[in-house]
Every structure is written in C-alpha cells, then in structure tokens.
Amino acid sequence: MLKPKATATRELVSLNGLWKFAVDTGDLAEPWAGPLTTTLEAPVPASYNDLFTDSAIRDHVGWAWYQRTVRVPRGWAGERVFIRLDAATHEGVVYVDDVEVVRHEGGYLPFEADITEHVAPGAEFRLTVGVNNVLTPDTIPPGLVKELPGGRKQQGYMHDFYNYAGLHRSVQLYSAPATRVTDVTVVTDVDGATGLVRYAVETSGDAEARVTLRDEQGEVAATATGAEGVLEVADVHLWQPGAAYLYDLSIELVDGDGDGDGDVVVDEYSLHVGVRTVEVREDRFLINGEPFYFTGFGKHEDSAVRGKGHDDAYLVHDFELIDWIGANSFRTSHYPYAEEVMDYADRHGIVVIDETAAVGLNSRISGGIADLMSAFGGGGGEEGFGPKMAEAHRREIRELIARDKNHPSVVMWSIANEPDTMAEGTDVYFEPLFDYARELDPTRPVTFVNVMMAPPDVCRVSKFADVLCLNRYYGWYVDTGDLATAEVHLEAELRGWEQMYGKPMIMTEYGADTIPGLHSVWDQPWTEEFQANLLDMYHRVFDRVDAMVGEQVWNFADFQTSVGIFRVDGNKKGVFSRDRRPKAVAHSLRARWTALRDGRTA
C-alpha cells in the first residue's frame, strides 16, 4: 500500500489533533448515527489509556469512538478523495456521516477508503472512527476476555507489553486522480559497478508509465518507459548500513504515447530507492556481498502519556541514541512500527528486522497471567493455532510486506515472536506461512524468533528459517544471578544450534531487569552492575561462536506492561530508562559497539 504524499497531482490534509472521544459503555449506536455526545477530547496520534484520570477508560475493553468535522478542500473537484488511517489498534471502523466506509482488523498496519461518493469538495462531513481493543484466541496477537463479577470485562493476553489502544498513528485525507499509480514494487541488485533497479507499477486506468531515477544531487541516473522494467545505474552508490544513499524514483502516468510530445501528466508519485543486496550464505549474513554483524536492540513504540502514539520528537531522539551507542540495527518487536520510523531508518542507514504482530502465540509463557495458560490449553489445536488464527496471520504477513517491501533498511522479515514451537502440529501451522512470505517477497530472508523453551533438539520450526533468531535469558530467568554457570549453559546451547543447523544466528533478546540507581559490589540482580556484567558475559560467548552474526539487547528502553506483581511499573530491561536516560550498561555497550563499528578492539 502506497504511503500518501503530496505531489504535483495529489494533495494531502492531516487530520491529526484533538478529536471528540468516548468509550462505548453499551449505549452508543453502532452502526454509527449522529454526533458524539461527550466532553472528552483525545489527541491523534496517541493511545487513549494514559490520557485520562478515570481508570474505567484506562482499563476499558471494547469499542472507543473518535469524531471530528472535516472539510474537503474545494479545489478537489474532479479528484478521488480518500481517508487513510495509519493504524487503529486492534480493529477499526470508519463512518463518513452515518455511512460505514471501511473496516479493518490488525492494529499496526494502514487501511483506507475511497470516500468520493460520500463527500463534496468545499463541504464538511462528520468523520467517526471506532477502535476496538479486544483480543481473542483467533486474533493476532491473541488474548482472552473474561467477565468479572459485576459485569466488568477484563482483557487478558500473553504478550509482555501493555495493550495500548487507540489511533496510534496519523489520520489523513488525500486526493488523487481517477487514473493513478496504485502500487509500486522495487527490487534492487548489483552487477559489478552497475546497480539494477527492477520496478513494477500498478495503476487504476489506462496510461503510459514514464519512470525517472535521480541521484541525491538531482541528476538523472536512468529512465524507462512502461509499467515494468529494469533501470541500470552506472557507478552506483550503494545503500550501506551507516551510510545511506537514496535515489529518487519518480513515476509519471501520461496520457499520450510517452514520447513527450503532447503528453499530459495525469498522475505523479515518487519514492526513495536504496540500491543494495541481501543474502544468507552458509552461516553468514551478507549486505552488498559483505558480512554484516547486527548490533542494536529490540524496541517498543512506548513512552509516557502517549503510550504507543507516534511522536516525531521521540523518533529523532531514539535514533540519536542508537547512533551515540554505536548500534546499527533494531527489530520492530513485536509489531510493525510507524512508517515514519521506516523512512527515517532508510535515510540514516539503520538496518531493520521487520516483525509482524504475531506475539503471544504461546500458552507456556503467561507473563504472570496464569488463567490464560489454562484457557489456551497448551496450544497446537483449534485454540491458538487454528485456521482462523492462521488466516489472520497470513493477513499480517501480506499487509506488512505490502507496506514495507520498498524500504532498503528492511533486510529480513520476522513472522512471529516466541511462538510455541515445541507443540505437535506447529510445524504444519508455520511451514505454509514461511512459504507465503517467500512467495510475496523472494528477495529477503525470512525468520521467526525462537523462545528459550525450544532448544535445537526440540524446536519444530527453526528448520524453515533462513536465520536463527534466539531470545535467551541465562543469568536472569535461568541460572539467576549465577553468571559463571549461565556462561557455560549459553555457550553449550549456541554450539548445539551451530552444529545442528549451520545457519547464521542472532541473539535478538538478552538482558536483565535493572533499577536505575541501584548498585552493589556483588553480582546482585536488578543492579546496574549486574546488567553490565551479564551483557559482558553474553558478549564473551558471542565472540567465541563463529555462527553468531548479531546481538540485539532487550530492550532499548524500559516500557510499560500489564502483568501485575511480576512487573513493577513495567519492564525494566531497558539500556535506557523510559524517559531515555542511560543506565551504566549504555556506556559499556557504547565502548563495544563503537569499536565494532570502527573496526577496533573494545
């Protein structure tokens, strides 16, 4: 799905700001009818949970409603008019006045509707958006709603981060011609010093496509005519980790023969293109033919008050901290991040493992919610890995790849985080999903993230992955506080993976909860010294195992959770606090990672 943007033939109006807001207590009409009667206002984008002082809103289970008045620019006469939502977590429905125009499941990916027939240029309309935060055994991610005494509902789930809800990302109104570019797919390759940019343009209506590729100085690097083709770029500047170079691909749809004489441009769309290659070869991960070693983090879209609401200030500051610490990558744990994040990674040369929202597919990990463990019954059957979940999972993979396929920063797809791959039947569930991801994008490796309870002789799914991504907590959840024993066990397991599979391995999670300001002369869990010593232990092991191609600490920053006494005001495994202050370990990581980046010995 193309990201809306203003061009010579398209216009864009942001609908971000304060909207009327109300949670649905059962007395609101649905399908929607009429103005929303409320005194509450909520900002878009933002989660609604932490905005208000009323705990009934924070803990609400079900639909919440946003409403505002929108005026269509009068200059849009003769154009198609679209409403676009970058995300509605976890289900969204949109009404123009009293007419439902689109409904979408999946809380972290965009959806839109052509509303031309329901609005008039120069006139106002009432825009209402419903957002439903309910998770069930068939949704991605899964969950279970309980009804408590008194009729109050409680949402349970098996992912260890807070189930923030709302309009987390931008809402936009945009115009486009009736005959327009509807999709673009770009695949790059390199032949010696020549870059190859294969493109395919999809359109609504008949028009000739005229394609121009320009370098960062605006000079024409290559041109072509036709909906599909290959652009050859002499002396190509490659997109490199830490050294991004982006070409501009401009697509014009013309009414005419495309030779320029008398042609009328009916639509124009452009996107950035980074020329680079990605390959897994034996136990190496190669970018542009050179071995690449991942350093960085698992992250979360999470900050105080905003929850998962996208914020450009946090975007910039987080990337500055990533650069300061010497990291070169992150994983979008455990859902697709805002498109602004992906664009920024493209521009700044940060490598991304792009993950679906398939987290919590594991009844063996309760995160402290014991009743969910019994409710899901161990997985592997109709509940948890049934056909309805599989279809939702396919949708998540399809929509993620459709949105992010053209980002050079994205080097690998992760189709799930820590699923139960020990249970019988999970290989039957996952093999078609790996095949589907490769069918949609044969150019990138496909992986999933393996949970600690599924070592190499137990996991039924790792055989399908191109890269082994492992989450391990030796020294924290296992061998707690005993780093000497943890080091032996960690290395033994990594050697087992290396011997059994011979695939590249990335440690996608490792770390320890740490309270800023808590210190000790001993290896005492929760102290800043213990966190640093634990990571140092992991790094010694990584340096001894040849198949290791990356280390991504859990987590970039502390984040909010909702698992009772198991977490005290959230997960504290961050290298940075929730307000982005460095813990002691940030400085030791900086020494290691800047040395790796600069080719020095730490």
TrEMBL record:
Signal peptide segment: none
Domain Glycosyl hydrolases family 2 sugar binding, chain residue ranges per copy: 14-177
EC number assigned by the record: 3.2.1.31
InterPro entries linked: Beta-gal/glucu_dom_sf (IPR036156), Galactose-bd-like_sf (IPR008979), GH (IPR017853), Glyco_hydro_2 (IPR006101), Glyco_hydro_2_AS (IPR023232), Glyco_hydro_2_cat (IPR006103), Glyco_hydro_2_CS (IPR023230), Glyco_hydro_2_N (IPR006104)
UniProt-listed PANTHER family: BETA-GLUCURONIDASE
NCBIfam families documented for this protein: PRK10150.1 (NF007538)
This protein's name: Beta-glucuronidase
Organism: Agromyces tropicus
Upper taxonomic lineage: Bacteria, Bacillati, Actinomycetota, Actinomycetes, Micrococcales
